[in-house]
Amino acid sequence: MNALKEHISFQASALALRDKRNTMLASNIANAATPGYKARDLDFDREIAREMGQSPVRKTDTRHFDNLVGVGADMVQYREPLNPSLDGNTVEISVEQMEFSENSLRYMTTLTFLNRRISGLMTAIKGE
């Protein structure tokens, strides 16, 4: 059973993280007009590396830009706005919509990969 679990564990972990990120991004979009709301996100690459027991992704050059700051206990980060608003809200709707669209596409791709892995296992079990 461990071999089966290992065969699909990466895709399953990636799918769960993509779902968590989609929820955060949707919450950001829903709170675009809430004064003082701070846009939240998570660093997918860092989180998937942590899930898989690998070293976290790091900036390799001082010129690399990191727009996520303030890592919390649950690894949620707050997005640094490009154009801060007067009411303290850090949600930039165009950025959030773009991030949500990209993450949704990656979610569907991960789901497709996971389905193909499971189909391959089923084919092997049936001996086809």
Q: What proportion of the residues form beta strands (DSSP E)?
A: 5-15%
Q: Can you tell me the residue ranges where pLDDT is under 50 for at least 5 consecutive residues? A: none
Distance between the termini: 20 Å
- Average of pLDDT: 84
Q: In DSSP terms, counting alpha (H) and pi (I) runs of 4 or more, how many helices?
A: 3
Q: What kind of sheet is the major sheet?
A: 3 strands, antiparallel
Overall radius of gyration: 18 Å
Shape: elongated
- Class computed from helices, strands and strand pairing: mainly alpha
Q: Summed up, what is this model?
A:
This protein is mostly helical. The chain is built from three helices and three strands; from the N terminus they run αβαββα. Helices cover 55% and strands 5% of the residues.
Describe the structure.
- This protein has 128 residues and is mainly α.
- It is built from 3 helices and 3 strands; from the N terminus they run αβαββα.
- It has helices at residues 2-30, 44-51, 93-126, and strands at residues 40-41, 68-69, 77-79.
- A 3-stranded antiparallel β-sheet has the order 1-3-2.
- Strand 2 and strand 3 form a beta hairpin.
- The protein is elongated and about 65 Å long.
- The protein starts with a helix and ends with a helix.
- 12% of the residues are buried.
- The mean pLDDT is 84.
Keywords:
three-stranded antiparallel beta sheet; 3 helices; 3 strands
Strand and helix map with partners:
Layout: H1 2-30, E1 40-41, H2 44-51, E2 68-69, E3 77-79, H3 93-126
